Amino acid sequence: MIVDFLKSNSTWIKDVFSIIFTGSATIVAILTYIRAKETFLQLIRTEVIKKQTEILN
To answer: Where are the transmembrane segments (predicted)?
Structure first.
């Protein structure tokens, strides 16, 4: 019974799992980009603070 259900509905089941996989991969990519951007900008801020400290000294 379950096998017959899967055989008759395999195309839309595949499509649903494809949408779920693509959506989760997109969310992970966006969150990774945001985190990488914050980390990169933190390095730039640190260098700016070092240069300002040297100038003030």
So the answer is: 16-36
3-state secondary structure 4-51: HHHHHCHHHHHHHHHHHHHHHHHHHHHHHHHHHHHHHHHHHHHHHHHH
Q: Which amino acid is at 26?
A: T
pLDDT tens by residue, 14-45:
999 999 999 999 999 999 999 888 777 777 77
Backbone angles phi, psi at 28, to 5 degrees: -65, -40
Residue ranges covered by each domain of the chain: 1-56
Dig out the tokens for 16 from the structure: 């649903």
